[in-house]
Amino acid sequence: MTFKEYNRFFLLACAPFIGLLIWLFSAGFTLEMPRLGFAPSLQPFAVTEVANGIHTSLDTAKGNAAATKSTIEKFYQLYEQSSNDMNAMLKLAVAQAGRPAAIFDNRIAAEFGKPIRTVSSANIDLRLYQFTDPNYKGYALKVDLKSDKAMQMALGKDKLGSSETTLAAASRLGAVAGINAGGFADTDDGRRFPLSTTMLNGKYVYGFEPTFDNLAFVGLSTDRKLIGGKFAKQADLDKLNPSFGATFVPILLKSGAKQVIPAQWQNSPKRAPRTVVGNFGNNQLLFLVADGYNERGGSGATLMELQDKLAKLHIVDAYNLDGGGSTSLIFEGKTINNPSDGRLRPLPTNFLFFK
């Protein structure tokens, strides 16, 4: 297209719009623009109103802070009171914990007087008493075991079938005290074996043997408690977690109740040197040793006399250990009782106490 043709095309295209504008102007048409302004609800807040709101919020925060402070102070006072109450309860518990031992000590003191010798260490507390009854003289040894090392049972010369005196065993193993343990049986070749069921270091020395002829096992559990009695099955004894123990006859007390003493043990012999063991309610042990100059029945104590004395002291469980010439009480390297054989008898088992 030529230049003239372009001009003609655009002139024709714009003609309607140009005509519309000429008509608007000639008709006097006007267009009013809206005025700008603020609605009453959108007016700016006054400075005083804002300040009043902030002041109110500050007052509220101040009140909340005061309430929080009061609550914290009350909780602190409550904590302090609770702490004081707990300390008082702890002191009372400590004092109460010592009462049973004091009660038992008072019972023993009332019966035997003051101890003639004492030993105290981190492992053990030992108190040795001497007493005189109308029919016999004797000794009492109270034992408080504080650790697993405090008390052990020893085989004679650490060998099954061998024997040694309680003094020799205590000296050899460094024990501060010792006392004879279970019964024994001799063989024709001169060996001396523990009687029936015997345990050492948690193991049966030569197997479990069901109770017969009123025999009773007596020893200590792994948690240092006196255990004993008659057992038909090994499982029944195993339930008590035995650590060591020996066997003899008879049972004297069970749960504080006197047990029937078999007739043959009431009269064969009637009186004799005796060794018995029992436990208090706090698991401390008490050994009684009765002196006698022979085994013919005319000296020493009867089992019923020792049973009565143990019951009077509120012993829980009690057992008779080997007696007669076997009765032996060693304390700090010396023989305390008067052995009826005139000398200490070699034994296959001894209870030893270590400082």
TrEMBL record:
The keyword Hydrolase applies. It comes from the Bacteria. GO terms for molecular function: hydrolase activity, acting on glycosyl bonds. It comes from Paenibacillus ginsengarvi. Residues 174-354 form the Phosphodiester glycosidase domain. Keywords: Glycosidase, Hydrolase. PANTHER family: N-ACETYLGLUCOSAMINE-1-PHOSPHODIESTER ALPHA-N-ACETYLGLUCOSAMINIDASE. This is Phosphodiester glycosidase family protein. InterPro entries: NAGPA. It holds the Pfam family NAGPA.
